[in-house]
Design a protein that fits this description.
This protein has 428 residues and is α+β, with helices and mostly antiparallel strands. It has helices at 24-28, 31-40, 60-68, 110-121, 124-129, 131-146, 153-158, 160-170, 177-190, 195-218, 224-230, 240-271, 273-284, 289-302, 334-337, 372-389, and strands spanning 43-47, 53-57, 72-73, 150-152, 311-313, 317-319, 322-324, 329-332, 394-395, 404-406, 411-413, 417-419. It is globular, with a radius of gyration of 21 Å. It starts with 23 loop residues before the first helix and ends in a 9-residue tail after the last strand. The relative contact order is 0.17. Bound molecules: protoporphyrin IX containing FE (HEM). InterPro entries: Cyt_P450 (IPR001128), Cyt_P450_B (IPR002397), Cyt_P450_sf (IPR036396). Residues 73-93 are annotated as: Disordered. Pfam families: p450 (PF00067).
Length: 428
Amino acid sequence: PGSGCPVSGSGPAGQAPAPEMFTWEFATDPYPAYGWLREHSPVHWTKLPSGVEAWLVTRYADAKQALADQRLSKNPAHHDEPAHAKGKTGIPGERKADLMTHLLNIDPPDHTRLRRLVSKAFTPRTVAEFAPRVQELTDRLIDGFAERGEADLIHEFAFPLPIYAICDLLGVPREDQDDFRDWAGMMIRHGGGPRGGVARSVKKMRGYLLELIHRKRENPGDDLISGLIRASDHGEHLTENEAAAMAFILLFAGFETTVNLIGNGVYALLRNPDQRERLQASLAAGETDLLDTGVEELLRYDGPVELATWRFATRPLTIGGQDIAAGDPVLVVLASADRDPDRFPDPDVLDLGRRDNQHLGYGHGIHYCLGAPLARLEAKAALATLLRRLPDLRLGADPADLRWRGGLIMRGLRTLPVEFTPTGTDGP
Ligand code: HEM
Protein backbone atom coordinates (compact mmCIF):
# COMPACT_ATOMS: atom_id res chain seq x y z
CA PRO A 1 0.00 0.00 0.00
CA GLY A 2 1.05 3.51 -0.71
CA SER A 3 3.97 2.35 -2.87
CA GLY A 4 5.68 5.05 -4.85
CA CYS A 5 4.57 7.73 -2.40
CA PRO A 6 6.82 10.08 -0.57
CA VAL A 7 8.08 8.55 2.64
CA SER A 8 7.78 10.34 5.95
CA GLY A 9 10.12 13.29 6.24
CA SER A 10 10.55 13.92 2.53
CA GLY A 11 8.34 16.01 0.33
CA PRO A 12 7.20 15.31 -3.22
CA ALA A 13 10.03 15.10 -5.77
CA GLY A 14 11.98 18.32 -6.13
CA GLN A 15 10.49 20.03 -3.11
CA ALA A 16 11.84 20.92 0.29
CA PRO A 17 11.47 18.09 2.79
CA ALA A 18 8.23 17.97 4.72
CA PRO A 19 8.47 19.34 8.24
CA GLU A 20 9.06 16.82 10.98
CA MET A 21 5.88 15.60 12.59
CA PHE A 22 5.03 13.89 15.86
CA THR A 23 7.87 15.58 17.73
CA TRP A 24 7.59 17.63 20.90
CA GLU A 25 7.58 20.90 18.90
CA PHE A 26 4.89 19.50 16.64
CA ALA A 27 2.63 18.63 19.61
CA THR A 28 3.10 22.20 20.90
CA ASP A 29 2.11 23.80 17.60
CA PRO A 30 1.27 21.48 14.70
CA TYR A 31 -0.33 24.21 12.58
CA PRO A 32 2.75 25.38 10.58
CA ALA A 33 3.46 21.76 9.56
CA TYR A 34 -0.16 21.29 8.46
CA GLY A 35 0.04 24.54 6.49
CA TRP A 36 3.03 23.14 4.61
CA LEU A 37 1.24 19.88 3.89
CA ARG A 38 -1.94 21.60 2.65
CA GLU A 39 0.16 23.51 0.19
CA HIS A 40 2.76 20.96 -0.94
CA SER A 41 1.44 17.48 -0.20
CA PRO A 42 -2.22 17.73 0.77
CA VAL A 43 -2.79 13.98 0.83
CA HIS A 44 0.40 12.80 2.45
CA TRP A 45 1.77 9.29 3.05
CA THR A 46 3.56 9.19 6.38
CA LYS A 47 4.98 6.84 8.97
CA LEU A 48 3.35 7.27 12.36
CA PRO A 49 5.25 6.93 15.63
CA SER A 50 3.77 3.42 16.01
CA GLY A 51 5.45 2.42 12.73
CA VAL A 52 2.13 2.13 10.87
CA GLU A 53 1.96 4.05 7.60
CA ALA A 54 -1.12 6.03 6.64
CA TRP A 55 -2.44 8.80 4.43
CA LEU A 56 -3.01 12.20 6.06
CA VAL A 57 -5.79 14.23 4.41
CA THR A 58 -5.17 17.90 5.24
CA ARG A 59 -7.38 20.16 3.06
CA TYR A 60 -10.93 21.07 4.09
CA ALA A 61 -12.67 20.00 0.87
CA ASP A 62 -10.83 16.65 0.74
CA ALA A 63 -11.39 16.07 4.46
CA LYS A 64 -15.11 16.62 4.16
CA GLN A 65 -15.33 14.30 1.18
CA ALA A 66 -13.29 11.59 2.91
CA LEU A 67 -15.38 11.73 6.10
CA ALA A 68 -18.52 11.03 4.09
CA ASP A 69 -17.00 8.48 1.68
CA GLN A 70 -18.56 5.05 2.23
CA ARG A 71 -15.64 3.39 0.45
CA LEU A 72 -13.62 4.22 3.55
CA SER A 73 -14.49 1.69 6.22
CA LYS A 74 -14.20 2.12 9.98
CA ASN A 75 -13.66 -1.60 10.44
CA PRO A 76 -9.97 -2.34 11.14
CA ALA A 77 -10.37 -5.72 9.43
CA HIS A 78 -10.00 -3.78 6.16
CA HIS A 79 -6.47 -2.70 7.06
CA ASP A 80 -3.99 -4.26 4.67
CA GLU A 81 -1.21 -4.50 7.25
CA PRO A 82 1.92 -6.60 6.79
CA ALA A 83 1.53 -10.08 8.31
CA HIS A 84 4.34 -9.51 10.83
CA ALA A 85 2.48 -6.50 12.22
CA LYS A 86 -0.90 -8.23 12.57
CA GLY A 87 -2.39 -7.36 15.91
CA LYS A 88 0.52 -5.14 16.89
CA THR A 89 -0.17 -1.84 15.18
CA GLY A 90 -1.84 -0.19 18.15
CA ILE A 91 -4.91 0.61 16.06
CA PRO A 92 -7.81 0.41 18.52
CA GLY A 93 -10.21 -2.38 17.79
CA GLU A 94 -7.92 -4.48 15.62
CA ARG A 95 -8.04 -7.20 18.26
CA LYS A 96 -11.73 -7.70 18.68
CA ALA A 97 -12.39 -7.00 22.32
CA ASP A 98 -16.14 -6.77 22.90
CA LEU A 99 -16.04 -3.17 24.04
CA MET A 100 -14.30 -2.23 20.81
CA THR A 101 -17.22 -3.25 18.65
CA HIS A 102 -18.69 0.21 18.94
CA LEU A 103 -19.98 2.99 16.67
CA LEU A 104 -16.55 4.23 15.66
CA ASN A 105 -15.34 0.79 14.54
CA ILE A 106 -18.29 -0.38 12.45
CA ASP A 107 -20.00 0.40 9.12
CA PRO A 108 -23.60 0.30 7.90
CA PRO A 109 -25.84 -1.61 8.24
CA ASP A 110 -24.66 -2.40 11.81
CA HIS A 111 -23.74 1.22 12.42
CA THR A 112 -27.15 2.42 11.23
CA ARG A 113 -28.95 -0.01 13.56
CA LEU A 114 -26.87 0.85 16.65
CA ARG A 115 -26.91 4.59 16.01
CA ARG A 116 -30.69 4.55 15.61
CA LEU A 117 -31.10 2.70 18.89
CA VAL A 118 -28.76 4.95 20.88
CA SER A 119 -30.37 8.06 19.38
CA LYS A 120 -33.67 6.97 20.92
CA ALA A 121 -32.13 7.02 24.39
CA PHE A 122 -29.58 9.84 24.06
CA THR A 123 -31.73 12.66 22.72
CA PRO A 124 -31.18 16.43 22.68
CA ARG A 125 -33.92 16.54 25.33
CA THR A 126 -31.98 14.17 27.63
CA VAL A 127 -29.10 16.60 27.33
CA ALA A 128 -31.17 19.77 27.84
CA GLU A 129 -32.70 18.31 31.01
CA PHE A 130 -29.21 17.64 32.26
CA ALA A 131 -28.20 21.35 32.16
CA PRO A 132 -28.86 22.13 35.86
CA ARG A 133 -26.73 19.17 36.94
CA VAL A 134 -23.83 20.31 34.71
CA GLN A 135 -24.07 23.80 36.22
CA GLU A 136 -24.04 22.36 39.74
CA LEU A 137 -20.99 20.22 38.96
CA THR A 138 -19.20 23.19 37.40
CA ASP A 139 -19.82 25.34 40.47
CA ARG A 140 -18.82 22.58 42.87
CA LEU A 141 -15.51 22.04 41.08
CA ILE A 142 -14.75 25.79 41.05
CA ASP A 143 -15.63 25.89 44.77
CA GLY A 144 -12.78 23.42 45.26
CA PHE A 145 -10.12 25.99 44.33
CA ALA A 146 -11.84 29.42 44.33
CA GLU A 147 -10.40 30.48 47.71
CA ARG A 148 -6.86 29.48 46.78
CA GLY A 149 -6.19 32.04 44.05
CA GLU A 150 -4.48 29.45 41.85
CA ALA A 151 -5.29 26.09 40.32
CA ASP A 152 -4.41 23.59 37.65
CA LEU A 153 -7.49 23.84 35.47
CA ILE A 154 -6.86 20.51 33.75
CA HIS A 155 -6.66 18.34 36.88
CA GLU A 156 -9.08 20.24 39.07
CA PHE A 157 -11.67 21.24 36.52
CA ALA A 158 -11.52 20.09 32.88
CA PHE A 159 -10.67 16.48 33.81
CA PRO A 160 -13.29 15.71 36.49
CA LEU A 161 -16.18 17.67 34.93
CA PRO A 162 -16.92 15.43 31.92
CA ILE A 163 -16.27 12.17 33.75
CA TYR A 164 -18.73 12.99 36.54
CA ALA A 165 -21.19 14.38 34.00
CA ILE A 166 -21.17 11.26 31.82
CA CYS A 167 -21.26 8.95 34.86
CA ASP A 168 -24.32 10.82 36.14
CA LEU A 169 -25.97 10.69 32.76
CA LEU A 170 -25.33 6.96 32.38
CA GLY A 171 -26.56 6.25 35.90
CA VAL A 172 -23.26 5.21 37.52
CA PRO A 173 -23.91 5.67 41.28
CA ARG A 174 -21.95 8.54 42.86
CA GLU A 175 -19.97 6.22 45.15
CA ASP A 176 -18.53 4.40 42.11
CA GLN A 177 -17.68 7.48 40.06
CA ASP A 178 -14.17 7.89 41.47
CA ASP A 179 -13.30 4.41 40.18
CA PHE A 180 -14.33 5.60 36.73
CA ARG A 181 -12.22 8.70 37.19
CA ASP A 182 -9.18 6.51 37.95
CA TRP A 183 -9.77 4.16 35.02
CA ALA A 184 -10.31 7.06 32.65
CA GLY A 185 -7.21 8.80 34.07
CA MET A 186 -5.18 5.70 33.29
CA MET A 187 -6.55 5.64 29.74
CA ILE A 188 -5.86 9.33 29.10
CA ARG A 189 -2.35 9.20 30.59
CA HIS A 190 -1.24 6.06 28.81
CA GLY A 191 -3.55 6.03 25.80
CA GLY A 192 -0.70 5.91 23.30
CA GLY A 193 1.89 4.34 25.56
CA PRO A 194 2.30 1.18 27.61
CA ARG A 195 -0.77 -0.95 27.09
CA GLY A 196 -0.75 -3.01 30.32
CA GLY A 197 -2.44 -0.53 32.66
CA VAL A 198 -4.83 0.58 29.97
CA ALA A 199 -5.87 -3.00 29.20
CA ARG A 200 -6.50 -3.61 32.89
CA SER A 201 -8.57 -0.43 33.17
CA VAL A 202 -10.63 -1.34 30.10
CA LYS A 203 -11.23 -4.80 31.57
CA LYS A 204 -12.35 -3.40 34.91
CA MET A 205 -14.62 -0.89 33.20
CA ARG A 206 -16.17 -3.62 31.07
CA GLY A 207 -16.83 -5.83 34.09
CA TYR A 208 -18.36 -2.93 35.94
CA LEU A 209 -20.55 -1.83 33.00
CA LEU A 210 -21.87 -5.35 32.37
CA GLU A 211 -22.80 -5.69 36.03
CA LEU A 212 -24.43 -2.26 36.06
CA ILE A 213 -26.44 -3.15 32.95
CA HIS A 214 -27.58 -6.30 34.74
CA ARG A 215 -28.69 -4.28 37.75
CA LYS A 216 -30.49 -1.68 35.62
CA ARG A 217 -32.32 -4.41 33.79
CA GLU A 218 -33.71 -5.62 37.12
CA ASN A 219 -34.20 -2.16 38.47
CA PRO A 220 -34.53 0.46 35.70
CA GLY A 221 -34.23 4.17 36.38
CA ASP A 222 -34.46 7.30 34.25
CA ASP A 223 -30.76 7.17 33.35
CA LEU A 224 -29.13 6.57 29.98
CA ILE A 225 -28.15 2.94 30.64
CA SER A 226 -31.78 2.10 31.45
CA GLY A 227 -32.72 4.02 28.30
CA LEU A 228 -30.25 1.98 26.22
CA ILE A 229 -31.72 -1.26 27.59
CA ARG A 230 -35.27 -0.05 26.90
CA ALA A 231 -34.57 1.39 23.44
CA SER A 232 -36.13 -0.59 20.64
CA ASP A 233 -36.40 -0.11 16.93
CA HIS A 234 -38.80 -2.29 14.95
CA GLY A 235 -38.69 -4.80 17.79
CA GLU A 236 -34.88 -4.81 17.92
CA HIS A 237 -32.93 -4.15 21.11
CA LEU A 238 -29.28 -3.78 22.03
CA THR A 239 -27.69 -6.95 23.37
CA GLU A 240 -25.93 -6.65 26.74
CA ASN A 241 -22.54 -6.54 25.05
CA GLU A 242 -23.74 -3.88 22.62
CA ALA A 243 -25.14 -1.81 25.47
CA ALA A 244 -21.83 -2.13 27.37
CA ALA A 245 -19.84 -1.16 24.25
CA MET A 246 -22.20 1.80 23.76
CA ALA A 247 -21.77 2.99 27.35
CA PHE A 248 -18.02 2.58 26.91
CA ILE A 249 -17.84 4.64 23.71
CA LEU A 250 -20.01 7.36 25.26
CA LEU A 251 -17.54 7.58 28.12
CA PHE A 252 -14.49 7.25 25.98
CA ALA A 253 -15.54 9.57 23.15
CA GLY A 254 -17.02 12.09 25.54
CA PHE A 255 -14.27 12.29 28.06
CA GLU A 256 -10.84 13.36 26.78
CA THR A 257 -12.53 15.40 24.04
CA THR A 258 -14.34 17.52 26.61
CA VAL A 259 -11.24 17.80 28.82
CA ASN A 260 -9.40 19.25 25.84
CA LEU A 261 -12.25 21.42 24.63
CA ILE A 262 -12.26 23.16 28.01
CA GLY A 263 -8.45 23.15 28.34
CA ASN A 264 -7.61 24.31 24.80
CA GLY A 265 -10.57 26.71 24.90
CA VAL A 266 -9.59 28.47 28.14
CA TYR A 267 -5.98 28.59 26.98
CA ALA A 268 -6.95 30.18 23.65
CA LEU A 269 -9.02 32.79 25.49
CA LEU A 270 -6.17 33.61 27.87
CA ARG A 271 -3.79 33.98 24.91
CA ASN A 272 -6.24 36.27 23.07
CA PRO A 273 -7.19 38.90 25.67
CA ASP A 274 -9.24 41.00 23.21
CA GLN A 275 -11.50 38.02 22.49
CA ARG A 276 -11.73 37.08 26.14
CA GLU A 277 -12.76 40.66 27.09
CA ARG A 278 -15.29 40.67 24.29
CA LEU A 279 -16.82 37.46 25.63
CA GLN A 280 -16.76 38.65 29.22
CA ALA A 281 -18.51 41.89 28.27
CA SER A 282 -21.15 40.04 26.29
CA LEU A 283 -21.83 37.58 29.15
CA ALA A 284 -22.02 40.45 31.65
CA ALA A 285 -24.68 42.04 29.42
CA GLY A 286 -26.70 38.83 29.68
CA GLU A 287 -26.17 37.84 26.03
CA THR A 288 -25.44 34.28 24.93
CA ASP A 289 -24.89 34.71 21.16
CA LEU A 290 -21.16 35.23 21.43
CA LEU A 291 -20.83 32.25 23.77
CA ASP A 292 -22.65 30.11 21.16
CA THR A 293 -20.52 31.17 18.20
CA GLY A 294 -17.44 31.36 20.45
CA VAL A 295 -17.54 27.69 21.46
CA GLU A 296 -17.78 26.73 17.76
CA GLU A 297 -14.84 29.00 16.97
CA LEU A 298 -12.75 27.48 19.76
CA LEU A 299 -13.49 24.06 18.26
CA ARG A 300 -12.35 25.26 14.85
CA TYR A 301 -9.33 27.17 16.11
CA ASP A 302 -7.84 24.51 18.38
CA GLY A 303 -10.29 21.64 18.70
CA PRO A 304 -9.63 18.58 20.84
CA VAL A 305 -9.73 16.04 17.99
CA GLU A 306 -6.65 16.64 15.86
CA LEU A 307 -7.16 13.62 13.60
CA ALA A 308 -10.46 11.85 13.00
CA THR A 309 -10.39 8.17 13.94
CA TRP A 310 -9.00 5.47 11.60
CA ARG A 311 -10.52 4.77 8.20
CA PHE A 312 -9.46 2.08 5.71
CA ALA A 313 -9.93 2.00 1.93
CA THR A 314 -12.11 -0.97 0.98
CA ARG A 315 -11.26 -0.46 -2.70
CA PRO A 316 -9.00 1.82 -4.76
CA LEU A 317 -10.13 5.45 -4.72
CA THR A 318 -8.85 8.98 -5.28
CA ILE A 319 -8.79 11.77 -2.72
CA GLY A 320 -7.63 15.24 -3.79
CA GLY A 321 -6.10 13.74 -6.95
CA GLN A 322 -4.11 11.17 -4.98
CA ASP A 323 -4.68 7.47 -5.68
CA ILE A 324 -5.31 5.43 -2.55
CA ALA A 325 -4.91 1.63 -2.66
CA ALA A 326 -7.37 -0.82 -1.12
CA GLY A 327 -6.32 -1.59 2.45
CA ASP A 328 -4.53 1.74 3.01
CA PRO A 329 -5.30 3.54 6.29
CA VAL A 330 -6.59 7.11 5.88
CA LEU A 331 -6.46 9.70 8.67
CA VAL A 332 -8.43 12.91 8.17
CA VAL A 333 -6.63 15.80 9.85
CA LEU A 334 -9.50 17.86 11.27
CA ALA A 335 -7.10 20.36 12.86
CA SER A 336 -5.63 21.11 9.44
CA ALA A 337 -8.93 21.21 7.55
CA ASP A 338 -10.26 23.74 10.05
CA ARG A 339 -7.32 26.09 9.38
CA ASP A 340 -7.62 25.83 5.58
CA PRO A 341 -7.51 29.37 4.11
CA ASP A 342 -9.54 28.12 1.11
CA ARG A 343 -12.47 27.64 3.48
CA PHE A 344 -11.95 30.08 6.37
CA PRO A 345 -10.78 33.67 5.88
CA ASP A 346 -7.88 34.47 8.27
CA PRO A 347 -7.90 30.90 9.59
CA ASP A 348 -5.18 31.51 12.19
CA VAL A 349 -7.15 34.34 13.81
CA LEU A 350 -9.47 33.54 16.74
CA ASP A 351 -12.73 35.41 16.10
CA LEU A 352 -15.41 34.35 18.60
CA GLY A 353 -18.10 36.00 16.50
CA ARG A 354 -17.13 34.11 13.32
CA ARG A 355 -20.15 33.29 11.16
CA ASP A 356 -20.19 30.73 8.32
CA ASN A 357 -18.17 28.45 10.55
CA GLN A 358 -18.91 24.94 9.31
CA HIS A 359 -15.88 23.45 11.02
CA LEU A 360 -15.14 19.73 11.07
CA GLY A 361 -14.30 19.56 14.79
CA TYR A 362 -17.22 17.16 15.38
CA GLY A 363 -16.57 15.24 12.19
CA HIS A 364 -19.00 14.92 9.29
CA GLY A 365 -21.24 12.26 7.76
CA ILE A 366 -22.70 9.22 9.48
CA HIS A 367 -20.12 9.24 12.31
CA TYR A 368 -20.78 12.91 13.16
CA CYS A 369 -20.35 13.36 16.90
CA LEU A 370 -23.29 11.88 18.76
CA GLY A 371 -22.38 13.85 21.88
CA ALA A 372 -22.14 17.32 20.29
CA PRO A 373 -25.13 18.71 22.25
CA LEU A 374 -23.61 17.52 25.55
CA ALA A 375 -20.16 18.82 24.59
CA ARG A 376 -21.63 22.24 23.81
CA LEU A 377 -23.55 22.29 27.07
CA GLU A 378 -20.47 21.42 29.14
CA ALA A 379 -18.15 23.81 27.31
CA LYS A 380 -20.56 26.73 27.63
CA ALA A 381 -21.20 26.10 31.32
CA ALA A 382 -17.47 25.73 31.97
CA LEU A 383 -16.35 28.87 30.12
CA ALA A 384 -19.19 31.14 31.21
CA THR A 385 -18.92 30.12 34.88
CA LEU A 386 -15.14 30.42 35.01
CA LEU A 387 -15.20 33.90 33.47
CA ARG A 388 -18.05 35.04 35.73
CA ARG A 389 -16.68 33.70 39.01
CA LEU A 390 -12.98 34.31 38.35
CA PRO A 391 -13.12 37.47 36.23
CA ASP A 392 -9.37 38.19 36.38
CA LEU A 393 -8.35 34.63 35.49
CA ARG A 394 -4.83 34.61 34.02
CA LEU A 395 -2.16 32.09 32.99
CA GLY A 396 0.02 30.98 35.89
CA ALA A 397 2.93 29.82 33.73
CA ASP A 398 4.97 30.89 30.76
CA PRO A 399 3.30 29.41 27.64
CA ALA A 400 6.73 28.07 26.61
CA ASP A 401 6.74 25.89 29.73
CA LEU A 402 3.37 24.27 29.07
CA ARG A 403 3.40 20.69 27.85
CA TRP A 404 0.96 19.32 25.30
CA ARG A 405 -0.31 15.79 25.19
CA GLY A 406 0.01 14.85 21.54
CA GLY A 407 -1.58 11.42 21.28
CA LEU A 408 -2.33 10.57 17.68
CA ILE A 409 -6.02 11.44 17.69
CA MET A 410 -6.38 14.06 20.43
CA ARG A 411 -4.37 17.10 21.33
CA GLY A 412 -4.54 18.96 24.63
CA LEU A 413 -2.60 20.46 27.52
CA ARG A 414 -1.19 18.24 30.27
CA THR A 415 -1.60 21.03 32.82
CA LEU A 416 -3.08 24.52 32.72
CA PRO A 417 -1.85 26.53 35.71
CA VAL A 418 -3.94 29.66 36.34
CA GLU A 419 -4.06 32.48 38.90
CA PHE A 420 -6.88 34.78 39.98
CA THR A 421 -8.05 36.87 42.91
CA PRO A 422 -9.30 34.44 45.57
CA THR A 423 -13.04 34.44 45.93
CA GLY A 424 -15.83 32.77 47.95
CA THR A 425 -17.03 29.24 47.40
CA ASP A 426 -20.74 29.77 46.91
CA GLY A 427 -20.72 31.29 43.49
CA PRO A 428 -22.50 34.63 43.13
C1 HEM B 1 -17.83 10.94 17.20
C2 HEM B 1 -15.58 15.07 18.31
C3 HEM B 1 -17.70 15.13 22.65
C4 HEM B 1 -19.73 10.87 21.67
C5 HEM B 1 -17.05 12.07 17.14
C6 HEM B 1 -16.24 12.44 16.00
C7 HEM B 1 -15.62 13.59 16.31
C8 HEM B 1 -16.02 13.95 17.65
C9 HEM B 1 -14.65 14.37 15.44
C10 HEM B 1 -16.16 11.70 14.65
C11 HEM B 1 -14.91 10.86 14.57
C12 HEM B 1 -14.70 10.24 13.22
O1 HEM B 1 -15.55 10.33 12.31
O2 HEM B 1 -13.64 9.62 13.05
C13 HEM B 1 -15.98 15.44 19.57
C14 HEM B 1 -15.57 16.67 20.21
C15 HEM B 1 -16.16 16.71 21.41
C16 HEM B 1 -16.95 15.48 21.55
C17 HEM B 1 -14.66 17.73 19.61
C18 HEM B 1 -15.98 17.85 22.35
C19 HEM B 1 -16.11 17.88 23.55
C20 HEM B 1 -18.47 14.01 22.76
C21 HEM B 1 -19.32 13.67 23.88
C22 HEM B 1 -19.87 12.46 23.60
C23 HEM B 1 -19.39 12.04 22.30
C24 HEM B 1 -19.50 14.54 25.12
C25 HEM B 1 -20.83 11.61 24.39
C26 HEM B 1 -21.10 11.66 25.60
C27 HEM B 1 -19.36 10.52 20.39
C28 HEM B 1 -19.73 9.27 19.77
C29 HEM B 1 -19.19 9.28 18.48
C30 HEM B 1 -18.48 10.55 18.34
C31 HEM B 1 -20.56 8.15 20.40
C32 HEM B 1 -19.29 8.18 17.44
C33 HEM B 1 -20.46 8.45 16.55
C34 HEM B 1 -20.60 7.45 15.42
O3 HEM B 1 -19.63 6.78 15.05
O4 HEM B 1 -21.72 7.33 14.90
N1 HEM B 1 -16.89 13.00 18.12
N2 HEM B 1 -16.80 14.75 20.41
N3 HEM B 1 -18.56 13.00 21.81
N4 HEM B 1 -18.62 11.27 19.51
FE1 HEM B 1 -17.80 13.06 19.93
